[in-house]
């Protein structure tokens, strides 16, 4: 079953439009105004087997914070809308992904409850013009607006690029597992409550 959504969000700091398709093997089209984030989101969507068409015009002359955070908000909103009542999907997903010397574990629960936790070395410094700590802002915004539980355990790594890529790829893999359909559910929601 294909799930789709469209999100448009405009503030004094950013103007963002998103189209999302779950699942999909189409190559995502991303123009966030933040080149490194573009690379990470393309990687996440590829390994998550979803398509995202994202355009963001943000106040990057200030810095990239507003764009990265607001993109996390919008992608989260898009996932929440596309997943609907979450009937028939596995709900839980996890992945452990190496990127050369870096290793990250991610677990997700499409629970309807917003929670985010990051464990590991502090993400500090810059990757070109991208402030590494913005990845935490993206992940938090995404989890809270998608209304999912998201745990990220960055186990180890030295190269900043590899560390971030292992995070985004692991998130994509975990999402793919969680949104995958389970025929044994016969279209029901995987919850003792009967709803998520």
General description of the model:
It is a single chain. This protein has 196 residues and is an alpha+beta fold. It has a single domain (3-185), classed as Imidazole glycerol phosphate dehydratase, domain 1 (Ribosomal Protein S5, domain 2, 2-Layer Sandwich), CATH 3.30.230. The protein has four helices and ten strands. It has a four-stranded mixed β-sheet, covered by helices on one side. Strands 5-6-10-7 form a four-stranded mixed β-sheet, covered by helices on one side. The protein has a two-stranded antiparallel ribbon with strand order 8-9. The chain is globular, with a radius of gyration of 16 Å. The protein starts with a strand and ends in a 17-residue tail after the last helix. 42% of the residues are buried. The mean pLDDT is 96.
Reconstruct the topology from this structure.
Elements: E1 3-10, E2 14-22, E3 29-31, H1 35-48, E4 51-58, H2 65-83, E5 92-99, E6 102-109, E7 115-120, E8 126-127, E9 130-131, H3 134-146, E10 149-156, H4 160-179
Parallel strand pairs: 3-4, 7-10
Antiparallel strand pairs: 1-2, 2-4, 5-6, 6-10, 8-9
């Amino acid at each position: 079953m294909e799930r789709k959504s469209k999100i448009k969000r405009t503030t004094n700091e950013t103007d963002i439009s998103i189209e999302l398709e779950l699942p999909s093997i189409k190559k995502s089209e991303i123009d966030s105004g933040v080149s490194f984030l573009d690379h990470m989101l393309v990687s996440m969507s590829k390994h998550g087997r979803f398509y995202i068409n994202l355009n963001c015009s943000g106040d990057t002359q200030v810095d990239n914070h507003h764009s990265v955070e607001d993109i996390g908000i919008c992608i989260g909103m898009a996932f929440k809308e596309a997943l609907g009542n979450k009937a028939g999907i596995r709900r839980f997903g996890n992945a452990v992904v190496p990127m050369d010397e870096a290793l990250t574990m991610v677990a997700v629960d499409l629970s309807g409850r917003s929670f985010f936790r990051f464990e590991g070395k502090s993400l500090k410094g810059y990757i070109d013009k991208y402030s590494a700590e913005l990845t935490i802002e993206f992940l938090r915004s995404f989890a809270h607006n998608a209304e999912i539980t998201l745990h990220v355990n960055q186990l180890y790594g030295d190269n900043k690029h590899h560390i971030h890529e292992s995070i985004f790829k692991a998130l994509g893999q975990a999402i793919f597992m969680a949104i995958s359909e389970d025929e044994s559910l016969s279209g029901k929601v995987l919850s003792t409550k009967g709803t998520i």
